[in-house]
Amino acid sequence: MKLVAWVLGPAGREEWPGRPGAASTAGAGLGVRVAAAVAGAGLLVAGTLHVVWAFSSWPLDSRAEFASAVVGVEESQLPSRPLTLAVAGLLVVASWLVVTGARPANRLAASRLVRVGLWTVFGVMSIRGLGGLVVSGLGLGGAPAEFRHGDLLLYSPLCIVLGCLTGYVAARTRRHRMSPQGRA
Hints:
Elements lengths: L1 H7 L14 E3 L4 H26 L7 H9 L9 H21 L10 H27 L6 H28 L2 E3 L7
Antiparallel strand pairs: 1-2
Helix pairs in contact: 2-4, 2-6, 3-6, 4-5, 5-6
């Protein structure tokens, strides 16, 4: 439990006294903190899986099976190791953005970088999820049936859930400009 408190920090509105015009995030209540913890963990696990996939075909036996079932391409069309590691890195950064955005006590939480990052993660994950449902659901693009099945049951819904959780965190911790008297 202390780990969760360390990751998410204290709840409530954190104002920065003595900094006229400073930006602050609205208080991150329990719902926002839970959403951030779940989304952050999901994005971190996805990033970790991409690191594993850069070096192996786990949980499948061969790269050809992996390419077909997990990526939806021929083995010769698999993304390169550096590209897979770049995706892993972006997922880890996305995890950090979500957790940081839900920590009002953290000065970075209200920064433009984190705010834009949160909305970007929301957009990318939502587009991937909704696009996957459309493409796999309608059988567009010529992906193998086993990939379309996994995309409809797992990959796209997971992306939608992670996107929605991130959007919830972004919306509930929106920026507020502080007046010189320290009031919003």
